[in-house]
Amino acid sequence: MRYITPTLSIKAASLHVTVALLALVFATTGCKKPRQFTRTKVQQEKVDQALLPSVPAPKFPVGAILDDKVKLVGLDVEPEKPDPGAKITVHFYWEVLADVEDKGEWMIFVHLEGPVQGGGEQARVIADHHAVEDGPGGPGLFPMRDWKKGNIIKDTKTIDLVDPRGKKLGPGEMVIYMGVYDAEAYRSKQENIRMKVKGDGVKSDGGDRVEAARFMVGNAPPPPVAKPFSAPQLQARQAVGPITVDGKLDEPTWKAAVPNGPLGRPDGTPSTPDMKTTVRVLWDEQNLYIAFNVKDAVGTSMFAARDEELWKQDVVEVYLDPDADGKQYIELQVSPKNIIFDALFAERRKPDWPEAKKWNFANMKTAVATQTADGGLDAGWNVEIAIPWTDLADAKGAKPAIGGKWRANFFRIENKDKGQDFASWSAVAEGGGSDFHNLDRAGWIVFTETPPLVKEQLLAPKPVAPPVPAPPAVPPATGATAPTGAPEPKPAPKEGEGAAVDPAEPKKGDGAPAPTGAATKTDPPTAKIAPTPSPAAP
Hints:
5% helix, mainly beta, 26 strands, 5-stranded antiparallel beta sheet, 11-stranded mixed beta sheet
């Protein structure tokens, strides 16, 4: 999305200000260019009315301090209990602790998340904005760069409870997450720079995103009490034969790999059947192998260069934290076109991804292939990955011992008509938010040997079915002429007698064709060999 920074030029007498208004359209189609105009007297009055004489006491107090410059006092939501898909008005209250620097383009970001109508699915509505909208849904009139120390600001924003796909949010509990980011840095350099969050009792997802409010939409039962988190485990068996990285997953050793259960949603609920995705992991003396089987009619991605923003379209993702400390971990993405994104993070989301992606695997191999429904795999596309142990040194990874454990997680992103769908192996949702980089909620891959019985089954020579014998000849009925076979030999004539002549037999050399029913040479029937079923993975 493209934004142009509004500028204020305040005249002492008239208080007329020239601004660049943003026409913010939070949808997948992008934003229109803004138009410039002089703020009217009515618009200036709206800004004046937004400056409060004292700090209010909102229904949802927050108290988050951002970069020691501004304090999010809290917010109010109207109506108190909206209907699914309705419009709501949110009043955000800010206290300015220091003049905000006139650098970049600081903008308020708002993520409203909750269930969509029909249940079983979470959605997000994005309402990033500058403060004090010009009418419901209008552009902001009071950008943060013009906030001054001591200002107490009431910022009003109208939000539709409808996600980008047109689905209504609700009934159920909604959560508002928010913070402040540099829109200019993101637009020009793809840097996700956010004001740092602090404050006693402030809930944050670790990515400088504050949980600001929870409220109910529609008539829905209260959310169930969350179950204690239990990290899933996946066996990574030692390969019993060579692997060719071609995406086909047809080597016998892949049949020994233990697949995970189908990926669920990031909040731990089951995914829809069309999002079925399974993962298998193997290892040998040289490499770590990872395979995805993605159920999908067709995988789509427009990206063609390494380290582009693959997560905006169809992609699978791998996170590896070999020493399980949440630091020096690797993110790997592979698109249906076999384009990769690889990055090394020193800690959770740090450095920002444009810096982290400068790190690359040196000798990793990946392949993508179309898959038909066969051998326990779903029709769709496969991803096959081989990572040399030497490529993992920067993440403190090396060839593991039997019984060793690594922190890991696997994800899939699928572009749909009106938005994206997500699937994850280990549920990363925490406090209502879902962050793929939340390694505290990653699963474990456990390195094991392949059981001897399984190895024996895979390496045993396949039996060959014996040839099917030809059926025995059936004697012809009395008086009938045998349809096949050589004619019976005629007895030799007695001495002095002429040879017996068969009136139906052509004379020697007359070139007449063989009569109907005469024997002709045929090839013996070909034996059919029954296919040998492959041994199933234990």
